[in-house]
Write a structure and sequence with these properties.
The structure is a homodimer. In chain A, about 65% of the residues lie in helices and about 5% in strands. Chain A is mainly alpha-helical. In chain A, helix 1 packs across helix 6 and helix 2 packs across helix 6 (about 115-135). Chains A and B meet through helix 1, helix 2, helix 6 and helix 7 of A and helix 1, helix 2, helix 6 and helix 7 of B.
Chain lengths: ~170, ~170
Amino acid sequence: MESSGILDAETKVHETPGAHKDELRLWLRLLTCTTLIEGEVRRRLRERFDVTLPRFDLMAQLDRAEEGMTLGELSRRMMVTNGNVTGLAERLVAEGLVARRQSASDRRSHMVRLTDKGRRQFRKMAEEHESWIADLFSGLSQKDVESLLTLLGKAKASTRKSMVAAE
Amino acid sequence: MESSGILDAETKVHETPGAHKDELRLWLRLLTCTTLIEGEVRRRLRERFDVTLPRFDLMAQLDRAEEGMTLGELSRRMMVTNGNVTGLAERLVAEGLVARRQSASDRRSHMVRLTDKGRRQFRKMAEEHESWIADLFSGLSQKDVESLLTLLGKAKASTRKSMVAAE
């Protein structure tokens, strides 16, 4: 989601009759917050490290997996646009930041993992990224943060339940 | 953000030392919620109306503007990926759902608005869309919804303030 000049669309929810205006406003506000933050993170990653968000996201996923993972799993775990995971991974391999896992079995040979150099580079970015997020949320108290974590956890569970029911 | 098989990445935030783990978890949870809901809305729009999310989003922006707006303004207001707003608008014009505004001045001649047909078609989709959102959030109480609106409003204000400070 590119955000550049996003406006307060959620304050403009059309006032047609309907029982679910608050839920709709909530969804638009959720979308606005995410778009704002994602846009800002994207901008800072580019300015500070000349790195795209999908590249950062891919490295973040690999950083969590000591043993590496397959490209398919990597693609499923990506938080932002999937883009071309294979192409992204290829470039990281070419730069010596990601390695294909050496292994006897066929399945494992498709696994990729961060190299030491890749992990060092990612951790450096991750540290700054974490401080940016703390900065963006600095207007929230610790209690606000905890309440949001709880309530968004509830929202996530509700969404998942409704998705399963609709299948 | 395509969501298909998104996993609980926010529960796997790497446990390196750092003071801002809760804020990072909050950001990842926000991103997960948005990605899940956006993916589900995208899927339902396609299945139910054979309509893409950017197309729905574009019509939603025009629905809020009685007088229509310029393509530039439309592009800024889009909540989801900007994509090719001009191309999208062209197709909607070709289908008789959007009209270029008739006017004497140059500036106004670039304005677009929904036709009556376009508005009818959008309102029909919007009604169902609103019920989907209510359904996805049905696990939340009215009080939860109100708390989330308040807290996300605070998060949005905090983000905006931090963005301005960083400029």
